[in-house]
Specification:
The chain is α+β, with helices and mostly antiparallel strands. It has a domain at 19-74: Ribbon (CD59). It contains two helices and five strands; from the N terminus they run H-E-E-E-E-E-H.
């Protein structure tokens, strides 16, 4: 029960905060909290110029790539890392 309480608390806190995305034009990047009503992080590559920002989901059309989790429009690999999986397993075992 304690684990579920912690998960619910974390989900509630993350929902209270806005979506965070990378905002980039070319190689210059910052992070930003997306203003309402934007709910997606975006990446678009036009002739080698990569632009990243926030956008409303109804405007996500090809060739714009959209995602909806914090900093999901990073340039790095988006798959699960082994270290992340090991870390979450260790955290889970502590709470059980």
């Amino acid at each position: 029960m304690r684990t579920y309480s912690i998960v619910i608390l974390l989900v509630t806190l993350s929902a209270a905060c806005g979506l965070k995305c990378y905002a980039c034009v070319g190689d210059t990047c910052t992070t930003q909290e997306c203003p309402s009503p934007t709910d997606q992080c975006t990446t678009i590559d036009v002739n080698g110029l990569v632009t990243k920002s926030c956008l409303a989901s109804d405007l996500c059309v090809s060739p714009i790539k959209c995602c909806s989790t914090d900093l999901c429009n990073s340039a790095g690999f988006t798959g699960s890392s082994v270290l992340l999986l090991l870390g979450s397993a260790a955290i889970t075992s502590v709470f059980l």
